[in-house]
Specification:
This protein has about 100 residues and is mainly beta. It is built from 1 helix and 8 strands, in the order E-E-H-E-E-E-E-E-E. The strands form 2 sheets. It has a 5-stranded mixed sheet, covered by helices on one side.
Protein backbone atom coordinates (compact mmCIF):
# COMPACT_ATOMS: atom_id res chain seq x y z
CA UNK A 1 0.00 0.00 0.00
CA UNK A 2 1.37 3.43 -0.93
CA UNK A 3 0.48 5.87 1.82
CA UNK A 4 2.57 8.71 0.34
CA UNK A 5 5.26 8.50 3.03
CA UNK A 6 8.90 8.09 2.07
CA UNK A 7 10.57 4.94 3.39
CA UNK A 8 14.10 3.64 3.29
CA UNK A 9 15.30 0.78 1.14
CA UNK A 10 13.61 -2.55 1.82
CA UNK A 11 15.53 -5.04 3.99
CA UNK A 12 14.67 -8.64 4.79
CA UNK A 13 14.44 -9.71 8.41
CA UNK A 14 13.23 -12.94 9.97
CA UNK A 15 10.59 -12.76 12.71
CA UNK A 16 9.85 -15.97 14.58
CA UNK A 17 11.09 -17.94 11.58
CA UNK A 18 9.07 -16.04 8.97
CA UNK A 19 10.54 -13.70 6.34
CA UNK A 20 9.49 -10.09 6.79
CA UNK A 21 10.07 -6.92 4.80
CA UNK A 22 11.20 -3.92 6.82
CA UNK A 23 12.71 -0.63 5.69
CA UNK A 24 16.10 0.90 6.43
CA UNK A 25 15.85 3.61 9.04
CA UNK A 26 12.98 2.11 11.00
CA UNK A 27 13.19 0.41 14.38
CA UNK A 28 12.29 -3.21 14.97
CA UNK A 29 9.23 -1.96 16.88
CA UNK A 30 8.21 0.18 13.90
CA UNK A 31 8.57 -2.77 11.53
CA UNK A 32 6.50 -5.02 13.79
CA UNK A 33 3.79 -2.42 14.32
CA UNK A 34 3.63 -1.67 10.59
CA UNK A 35 2.88 -5.37 10.12
CA UNK A 36 0.19 -5.23 12.80
CA UNK A 37 2.22 -7.31 15.24
CA UNK A 38 1.19 -6.20 18.74
CA UNK A 39 3.17 -8.32 21.20
CA UNK A 40 6.92 -8.81 21.38
CA UNK A 41 7.42 -10.81 24.60
CA UNK A 42 5.60 -12.70 27.35
CA UNK A 43 6.00 -11.97 31.07
CA UNK A 44 7.99 -14.45 33.19
CA UNK A 45 5.38 -15.23 35.85
CA UNK A 46 2.10 -15.44 33.94
CA UNK A 47 3.07 -15.46 30.28
CA UNK A 48 1.08 -12.31 29.53
CA UNK A 49 1.82 -10.62 26.19
CA UNK A 50 3.68 -7.32 26.18
CA UNK A 51 4.63 -4.96 23.36
CA UNK A 52 5.31 -1.38 22.40
CA UNK A 53 4.48 1.11 25.16
CA UNK A 54 6.63 4.24 25.56
CA UNK A 55 8.92 4.00 22.54
CA UNK A 56 11.86 5.69 24.25
CA UNK A 57 13.70 2.82 25.90
CA UNK A 58 12.67 3.16 29.53
CA UNK A 59 10.02 0.52 30.18
CA UNK A 60 11.42 -2.71 28.63
CA UNK A 61 7.92 -3.81 27.50
CA UNK A 62 9.22 -4.24 23.93
CA UNK A 63 12.16 -6.50 24.86
CA UNK A 64 12.73 -9.37 22.46
CA UNK A 65 15.51 -11.60 21.16
CA UNK A 66 17.58 -10.20 18.27
CA UNK A 67 20.20 -12.38 16.59
CA UNK A 68 20.20 -14.67 19.64
CA UNK A 69 20.67 -11.85 22.16
CA UNK A 70 17.78 -11.52 24.65
CA UNK A 71 16.39 -8.35 26.20
CA UNK A 72 16.92 -6.13 23.19
CA UNK A 73 14.59 -3.14 23.21
CA UNK A 74 12.74 -3.08 19.89
CA UNK A 75 12.01 0.65 20.21
CA UNK A 76 15.75 1.50 20.20
CA UNK A 77 17.05 -1.07 17.72
CA UNK A 78 17.14 -0.35 13.99
CA UNK A 79 16.47 -3.11 11.48
CA UNK A 80 19.34 -4.57 9.49
CA UNK A 81 19.27 -6.91 6.52
CA UNK A 82 19.25 -10.54 7.68
CA UNK A 83 18.38 -9.69 11.28
CA UNK A 84 16.68 -12.53 13.20
CA UNK A 85 14.00 -11.42 15.65
CA UNK A 86 12.17 -13.72 18.07
CA UNK A 87 9.37 -13.26 20.57
CA UNK A 88 10.91 -13.40 24.03
CA UNK A 89 9.45 -15.74 26.63
CA UNK A 90 9.92 -14.43 30.16
CA UNK A 91 13.39 -13.10 30.86
CA UNK A 92 14.79 -14.65 27.71
CA UNK A 93 17.25 -17.48 27.24
CA UNK A 94 20.07 -15.79 29.21
CA UNK A 95 19.38 -13.73 32.30
CA UNK A 96 16.88 -11.12 33.28
CA UNK A 97 15.65 -7.78 32.09
CA UNK A 98 18.03 -5.02 33.07
Amino acid sequence: MDDGKARGAPVRIIIDGEPWTAYAGETVAGALLAGERAHFRRTPARGQPRGYYYGMGVCWECALVVDGRPNVRACLTYVADGMRVETQDGDGPRGSLE
